[in-house]
Amino acid sequence: MTRHLYTEFLSLQSAGIIVGLLLIATHAVALLMPDRTQALLKRLPRHKEVGIAILAVDFIWAFWLIGNIDLGEFYVVEKPVKILLPIVFVLFVVFVDEFLAVRAAGVFLLLLACPILDIAFLKEPVTRLLLPALAYVWILVALFWVGMPYLMRDQIAWASRSPGRWRALSAGGVVYGGAVLLCAVMFWGASGG
Fold it and tell me: Per-residue confidence at 97, pLDDT binned at 50, 70, 90?
């Protein structure tokens, strides 16, 4: 349903390069500057301004998506949803004070998983499964963040409880990002499309 939207401007290789570089960059910062990164992450769940910014991105993406996908027999809901989206955005900004950033980040991860899954769908080689595996982790985490947003705070506290755990998780993200980047450059160019 959305596959044609993302594959027009994004290939498996370009998605792999982008995701790999982002994973390496963010986890390398966490590895090299653990105190600053932990302090930033601990403030994130209750940071309303960041929540509004992420929610605005979610809103724009969802508005674009509803206007461009083929809804099939549900085409009649397109106009009401386009009217309802801005109202929901304003209601969230006004009435959802608790953990708005977490909920918005969860919605963002749900939206982000879609192009990753669409781009990797039925492609060769099998190493492409590095992207869908990551997307499914995002989906699982996002569902918990939207439904039980306090879990992000608990997850950040758990990850930062000991320096060794923080280093291991950060290094794991760098390694996974490196694997995605390596596969994107070496294997996903010709066959990945």
Answer: confident
Q: What is the DSSP string of 133-187?
A: HHHHHHHHHHHHHHH-THHHHHHHHHHTSSHHHHHHHHHHHHHHHHHHHHHHHHT
Tens-place pLDDT, residues 111-167: 999 999 999 998 888 999 999 999 999 999 999 999 999 999 999 999 999 999 999
3-state class percentages of the chain: helix first, strand second, coil last, to nearest 5: 85, 0, 15
Residue 181: CB atoms within 10 A of its CB come to 20
CA dist 121 → 3, 66, 182 (Å): 9, 21, 19
Domain extents in the chain:
3-186
Q: Lowest-pLDDT range, 15-29, 66-80, 94-108, 153-167?
A: 66-80
Tallying the residues shown for the chain, one arrives at: 193
Helix (H, G, I), strand (E, B), or coil: what is residue 71? coil
